[in-house]
Design a protein that fits this description.
mainly beta, 7-stranded mixed β-sheet, about 10% helix, binds the ligand CC(C)(C)S(=O)(=O)N[C@@H](Cc1ccccc1)C(=O)N[C@@H](Cc1c[nH]c[nH+]1)C(=O)N[C@@H](CC1CCCCC1)C(O)(O)C(F)(F)C(=O)NCCN1CCOCC1
């Protein structure tokens, strides 16, 4: 069995990617943000204060004949951007791209931070990182993909994210026609609960490749490509109008400047992010904000949507490996 669900950018900046998910019986369809950087499936619900839920689609467990409360269970999560949410837990049938998982933990939000209230593009998240990162207490719950994997044709899913266009999340199969190049696989380290891998070098534009070991995660829930300062400084050194903008907390440049591409090693291959994807968004007038920024203070590098948009990414749980193919 397999599943295939379309995704689309939430706004004109590709800030996040949204996929419709069916929960309960009869189906309640919610627009959710698939996040390979976390492991909780949580939703705005009938238990979310109505002032916070305004503008969001909600899940109402009492209207679903297949919902069951998980007694005594609670969850609480804080994300890298200091947004947070918490609540209690139900199980229900969750269908994604035509594939149904019964008894899926659906974490119902009784509290959400202001960023979530304001971001009406999503009604919650589908965590697709490893089960160890799940925050439910006293008993950790499995992700939708973990529950699905034993029933899927193959224990894999792929992310195909595109700039200002639809893409897909495919489960149980790899559609190689989505890629222009071969898939190169690298092993993941599972200790932190992420899809974490090491990239051995990088190159800027047509420049020579520089040895630099990057320990990073493939993270669909992070908008930008966040790497070590040395790499980021070297990149914007090649951008004549670039400057570090303290107020924007990142590098900005003149929108009319052509940006060099950025390549990173995946095993013995490389993935090249075209400069056009690194011209992320206008901030004001003709000043633009870069899609490549520093990972300082995070403790790990993040290959977020700006990098993933350049590739077809294969999340292979069966073989504990990550595959990247140029698009
Ligand atoms: C807002 C913005 C300027 C466009 S942004 O570039 O910051 N984009 C946000 C995502 C976003 C888009 C649109 C609207 C609102 C928020 C972004 O990239 N956030 C990252 C920033 C970051 C990462 N690291 C340091 N900073 C983040 O927190 N991403 C998490 C998912 C987000 C959370 C907010 C809502 C959208 C989804 C994440 O899950 O990808 C994560 F990996 F970064 C993360 O925080 N994972 C949580 C891992 N823990 C481990 C321990 O157990 C609990 C879970």
């Amino acid at each position: 069995q397999t599943g295939s669900a379309p995704n689309h950018p939430s706004d004109s900046e590709d800030d996040e990617y949204i996929t419709n998910v069916s929960i309960g019986t009869p189906a309640q369809v919610l627009p959710l943000d698939f996040d390979t950087g976390s492991s909780d499936l949580w939703v705005f619900s009938s238990e979310t204060p109505s002032s916070s839920a305004r503008g969001h689609t909600i899940y109402t467990p009492s209207k679903s004949s297949t919902s069951k409360k998980v007694s005594g269970a609670s969850w609480s999560i804080t994300y890298g951007d200091n947004s947070s949410s918490s609540g209690d837990v139900y199980t229900d049938t969750v269908s994604i791209g035509g594939f149904s998982v019964t008894g899926q933990a659906v974490e119902s939000a009784t509290k959400v931070s202001s960023q979530f209230v304001q971001d009406t593009s999503n009604s919650g998240l589908v965590g697709l990182a490893l089960d160890s990162g799940n925050t439910v207490k006293p008993t950790k719950q499995k992700t939708w993909f973990s529950n699905a994997s034993s029933h899927l044709a193959s224990p894999v899913f792929t992310a195909d994210l595109n700039h200002q266009a639809d893409g897909s999340y495919n489960f149980g199969f790899i559609d190689t026609s989505l890629a222009s190049g071969p898939i190169t696989y690298v092993p993941i380290s599972t200790g932190n609960g992420f899809w974490e891998f090491t990239s051995s070098s990088y190159a800027i534009g047509g420049g020579s490749s520089k040895k630099h070991s990057t320990d990073g995660i493939a993270d669909t829930g992070t908008t930008l490509l966040l790497l070590d300062d040395t790499i980021v400084d070297a990149y914007y050194n090649q951008v004549q109008s670039a400057q570090y903008d303290d107020s924007q907390e990142g590098y900005t440049f003149d929108c009319s400047e052509d940006l060099p591409s950025f390549s990173f090693a995946v095993g013995s291959s490389t993935i090249t992010v075209p400069g056009s994807l690194i011209n992320f968004a206008p901030v004001d007038g003709n000043t633009c904000f870069g899609g490549l920024q520093s990972d300082d203070g995070i403790g790990i590098s993040i290959f977020g949507d700006v990098a993933i948009k350049a590739a077809l990414v294969v999340f292979d749980l069966g073989n504990k490996r990550l595959g990247w193919a140029q698009k």
